[in-house]
Amino acid sequence: MKGLRKSPWLLLAAFILALLFRLYSLQVDPDPRIRSQAGSQYWARLRVTAPRGIIRDRNGIALAISAPALSFFIDPTLWDPGNAPLLQDLIPRSRLERISGSIGGRYYPIARKVDPPISDRVINLRLPGLFWVKETKRVYPQGNTLSHVLGFCDIDDRGLAGAELFWDSVLYAPPEGRIIAKDARGDFVDVAIPGLTMTADNDSLVQLTIDSRLQHILERRLREGVLQHKAEWAAAVLLEPSTGMMSGTPTRSVPTRF
Question: Which of 15, 20, 124, 245 is deepest in the core (most CB within 10 A)?
């Protein structure tokens, strides 16, 4: 009788052990069909640039900011090389030639940080296998004004010259982690990776003593002086007499002709 009473519990324990073993096998060594399905939904794990801090003049006018931009890539398993000519003049020639033939893998980048007018044209083509991810691109709202002071950044938004380089440790934000994948319906998914994603806004700020309005006036006057006196090079510095604070520093040179 005792054996009969214990048998239901033994059967239940055996069932639970079998269930746990099955769950373990699915997690550690899943069925090849499951691995194949997961692979068809997964593209790549990558890092995209996060917004840099802002550079402003003494009046708070933005001199350097990070603006939204799109980076494009293709899934070679969905891409038709015959559509490559449609991207002519929209992406680099080397990338265009590459996607005109057979490519392996699930992820191949074709253009990074494309300006809105061009990116809109690429999106409107609605080509199968062509996708994009959001990044940021360094832009200078005042154009060439103070370009010799501000410097510039590389494609990954690391400062390479000028204030961008000098204050890079303050302005730079580590890249965001992204998973590029498809959902069960085959729709594109751009998923942030926990722990690798920074906040959407970088509140770092570098404020210069330069007054961009005075800088514009100085640059115009300096340009007029160079033309009037046929000078090859000229520079000026505007300082506040009471504090020695620099308010403007234009330069002007005439390109050398060979």
Answer: 245
Question: Per this entry, what is the length of the chain?
Answer: 258
b vs e for 60-72, b when ≥16 Cβ sit within 10 Å of the residue's Cβ?
eeebbbbeebbbb
Supply the CATH classification number for the domain 43-207: 3.90.1310.10
User: Which sign does the torsion angle of CA 113, 126, 188, 29 carry?
Assistant: negative
CB-count exposure of residue 20 (10 Å: 0-12, 13-18, 19+):
exposed
Q: What is the pLDDT along the chain (258 residues), one digit of tens a residue?
A: 445 455 677 777 777 777 776 666 656 555 565 555 555 555 566 677 888 999 999 999 999 999 999 999 888 888 999 999 999 989 989 999 999 998 887 788 999 999 888 999 999 999 988 888 888 899 999 998 899 999 999 999 999 999 999 999 999 988 876 666 655 555 555 544 443 334 445 678 899 999 999 999 999 999 999 989 888 889 999 999 999 999 999 988 755 544
Q: In terms of Cα–Cα distance, which of 142, 143, 176, 175 is closest to 158? A: 175
What is the spatial distance between Cα 33 and Cα 38, in angstroms, rounded to a whole number?
9
